[in-house]
Predict the structure.
Amino acid sequence: MDFNISPRVEDFRARIAAFVERELLPAEEDRANYDAHENVRTDVLETLRAKARAEGLWCLQLKPETGGQGLDKVGMAVCYEEMNRSIFGPVVFNSAAPDDGNMMVLEQAGTPAQKERWLQPIVQGKVRSAFAMTEPHPGSGSDPAGMMITTARRDGDKYIVRGRKWFITGAEDAQHFILVARTSDDPRKGLSALLFDGDTPGWRIERRIPIMGPEEHGGHCELLFEDMEIPAENLLLNEGDGLKVTQMRLGPARLTHCMRWLGLSKRCVEIATTYANERFAFGERLADRESIKLMLGDLAMQIEVGRLLVMKAAWELDQGSFARKEVSMAKVHVANVLHKAADTAIQINGARGYSKDTPLEWIYRYARQARLVDGADEVHKMVLDRTLAAEGRDFWKWDVTGA
């Protein structure tokens, strides 16, 4: 792959960087701009979103005919990393989870009528969305095909849904939902994906699950479905394609998480480096101490390794590959780098890092979930082991141009 980026992508990157510096970092510093769940307050968000849209920095990941700028995955990697220099960044540019992944899968899998009804309001920033898949024990977690127990029973021109979901990101504020439920006992074609509106009767939010935080808008919720009726026309793709929809959504979504996490990792290094250059102890700057040099040098290297893994996976996706191996490697590495970057930056900043005077403690708490969301580290390592068993030495093969 070629690591040069196009002038168009560089233009977007530079304009995003300027917007983050000018608009988002000052907004971060004012605690009055945060809501009760430590995210950007909704009214402040809408003001910032209007500015981002006016500058053409909106939904870069979607096709122009959908309302985006048509960036490929490599271009997204460059821009998403830049966006998440700020903890407010992705949601301002309408590139934050779960809306980001939901928009991309609806763009890819929806019919023209479904795109108009379900996708366009999210693209336009009029509604938020959620992806309802994970269930409490004994239901599905990392193994939806084998363990999902929420059912969608066909009854004429509708499906009747019964079951329970939990840790559904954004559900409290969402209006548009993608639900994955069991429609048969077939081991590969037993799941289906259905669209429903938040105003549909027959379901409710039982609780907004308290988490370590900070939280996305709409929190992480437990949902109960009691004979909710969904029209059959709301089926995404065909009955039995739920696992396919899930794979279409989660592969790219895992990688976009990594893109954003790299931006936060770099922000941690930025804060740590600035403090180390300013702070004196025992007669010398912290930055001149060998221990600090080793910490920051190692972080810089690990972040760059993560960037290379993300770029390789993004490039593979752009070539039409599923890039399962590449995405899994990036997901494990970058999730751990983010946690290490936040932890190291807090250590270098001392008590200041542990306080709310910087966003480091916010990033640290957020980072711990990175090793769980969209597949725990151990699941991705099992995927890699399975690939290694199947490919042997070809696990590390080079792709040959023109082959």
